[in-house]
């Protein structure tokens, strides 16, 4: 059976999950879970992946996340390769840790996202590990109800559906999950459509028409795969967009010019995966300063819609990331 295509675009929301090989544990103790989350945060910060909700159990996990860049496969490969290598070395084992490639479904904001967060947080209750979700410390539920705060998470797309006040958000979410628990239906896995989507028909049609046919419809002509953009592809794009010289981009202290340099740093680190040392040598900035700029600017892109839109427009023009234009083709014709 052919694999379902990955649909990738900047800002996409995904439900990502996987199990251990032959349903064997992938987390045997709390040290394993701590290490897995350490790797997750490390690569999420490097690659502009934003965590909305999560749950780690024993032989499987669930993540609800957003990719600011179209880089989910690269992120998951780095995360799982690093953790599997650490896990196997710790226990003196070899072989596959995961049963298959991870599953990822696209999620629509609003009620669908809310229902998914509830399903994720009630997984430990469904598995019989606890009787209440706040008893399981390896999920984001305690963050959602105000028991603890996780600085590396952004739960706003869920909690802001309830209220503007933070305390009211926590109480409302707790009651919402409790009501679902009482009804006994909230832990049922949300049904997917076409095996790929958690959303309504309008959402599915919009995403499918924009992204899916290029990968899956043989009637849509495909362009040859382009190599991934390099640091110099990104630099060339930034210089064209800004009308600056490289010297001005590199040395100017004016806010308008450092804005473009910050975008270059963000895209070079998240799309081209340029090492810190290489960027440091190019821009004459310390590795620590580059890391600070990249972190601050990706958070800024989360809250400023104009900046996020501008970044999406620019990345779509980069080689290897440009989406081919969809041609009008009548089904059954060539």
Would you kindly provide a written description of the structure presented here, covering whatever features stand out?
The protein has 334 residues and is an alpha+beta fold. It folds into two domains: 12-212, 2-Layer Sandwich (Alpha-Beta Plaits), CATH 3.30.70; 231-315, Chromosomal Replication Initiator Protein Dnaa, Chain: A, CATH 1.10.1750. Helix content is 49%, strand content 9%. It contains 15 helices and five strands. The protein has helices at residues 30-47, 72-91, 111-121, 123-126, 141-144, 156-159, 166-183, 201-210, 212-216, 231-242, 246-251, 255-270, 276-283, 287-303, 305-315; strands spanning 12-19, 49-56, 60-67, 103-107, 197-198. The chain has a five-stranded mixed sheet with strand order 2-3-1-4-5, sandwiched between helices. Strand 2 (49-56) and strand 3 (60-67) form a beta hairpin. Helix 1 (30-47) packs antiparallel against helix 2 and helix 10 (231-242) runs antiparallel to helix 12 (255-270). The chain is globular. The two termini are 25 Å apart.
CATH superfamily of the largest domain: Transposase IS200-like
Stated plainly, the CATH topology of the largest domain is called Alpha-Beta Plaits
The N- to C-terminal Cα distance equals 25 Å
Strand order of the largest sheet: 2-3-1-4-5
Count of spatially separate domains: 2
The main pleated sheet reads as: 5 strands, mixed
What is the architecture of the largest domain at the second tier of CATH?
Answer: 2-Layer Sandwich
- The radius of gyration over CA amounts to 21 Å
The proportion of residues forming helix, as a percent range, comes to: 40-55%
| Count of runs of 4 or more consecutive helical residues | 15
How does the overall form come out from the CA principal axes?
globular
């Amino acid at each position: 059976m052919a694999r379902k295509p990955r649909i990738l675009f900047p800002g996409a929301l995904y439900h990502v999950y996987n199990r251990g090989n032959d349903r064997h544990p992938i987390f045997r103790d709390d040290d394993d879970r701590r290490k897995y989350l350490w790797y997750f945060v490390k690569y999420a910060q490097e690659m502009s992946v934003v965590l909305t909700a999560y749950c780690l159990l024993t032989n499987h996990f669930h993540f609800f996340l957003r990719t600011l860049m179209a880089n989910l496969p690269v992120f998951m490969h780095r995360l799982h390769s690093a953790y599997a290598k650490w896990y196997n070395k710790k226990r003196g084992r070899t072989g596959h840790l995961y049963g298959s490639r991870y599953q990822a479904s696209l999620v629509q904001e609003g009620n669908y996202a809310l229902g998914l967060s509830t399903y994720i947080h009630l997984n430990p209750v469904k598995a019989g590990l606890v009787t209440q979700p706040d008893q399981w410390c390896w999920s984001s539920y305690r963050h959602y109800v105000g028991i603890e705060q996780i600085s590396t998470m952004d739960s706003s797309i869920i909690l802001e559906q309830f209220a503007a006040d933070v305390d009211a958000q926590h109480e409302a979410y707790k009651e919402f999950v409790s009501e679902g628990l009482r009804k006994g239906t909230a832990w049922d896995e949300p049904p997917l459509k076409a095996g790929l989507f958690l959303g309504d028909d309008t959402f599915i049609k919009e995403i499918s028409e924009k992204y899916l046919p290029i990968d899956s419809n043989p009637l849509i002509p495909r362009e040859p795969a382009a190599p991934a953009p390099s640091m110099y592809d990104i630099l060339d794009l930034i210089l064209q967009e800004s009308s600056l010289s490289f010297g001005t981009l590199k040395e100017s202290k004016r806010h308008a010019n450092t804005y473009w340099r910050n975008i270059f740093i963000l895209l070079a680190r998240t799309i081209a995966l340029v090492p810190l040392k290489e960027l440091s040598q190019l821009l004459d900035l310390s590795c620590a300063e580059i890391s600070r700029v990249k972190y601050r600017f990706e958070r800024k892109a989360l809250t400023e819609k104009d900046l996020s839109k501008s970044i999406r427009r620019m990345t779509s023009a980069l080689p290897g990331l440009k989406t081919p234009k969809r041609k009008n083709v009548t089904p059954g014709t060539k």
